[in-house]
């Protein structure tokens, strides 16, 4: 499972970077940043699983900010990208 997450995440990040270079559309750039954030989340979780890195060194209450921030940040980028696309579609119909 670790290898599949790393390999598929790396492929996703690679194609996201290729897309980023080819387009200057803000919605696609936000999708790309979301994909790169997802890969950073995968790498952090695997490094923590292997004991190389600990994201629990700094806790706010009983929650690690890194463990909370990375998934939320990824979703925020996707939400922003989809919102831009929805607004564009709505404006085209008017």
For the largest beta-sheet, the strand count, sense and barrel status come to: none
How many whole angstroms does the radius of gyration measure? 16 Å
Helix count, per DSSP?
3
**How would you classify the helix and strand content by structural class?**
mainly alpha
Total domain units? 1
Apparent shape = flat
State the low-pLDDT regions, or none.
none
- Fraction of residues in H or I helices: over 70%
Average pLDDT rating: 88
Number of strands: 0
**How far apart lie the N and C ends?**
47 Å
Oligomeric category: single chain
Order of helices and strands: HHH
Strand percentage, roughly?
under 5%
What are its keywords?
94 residues, mainly alpha, 3 helices, 0% strand
Q: Would you give an account of this structure?
A:
- The protein contains three helices and no strands.
- The longest helix has 29 residues.
- Helices cover 79% and strands 0% of the residues.
- Helix 1 packs antiparallel against helix 2.
- The model has no long low-confidence stretch (mean pLDDT 88).
- The chain has 94 residues and is mostly helical.
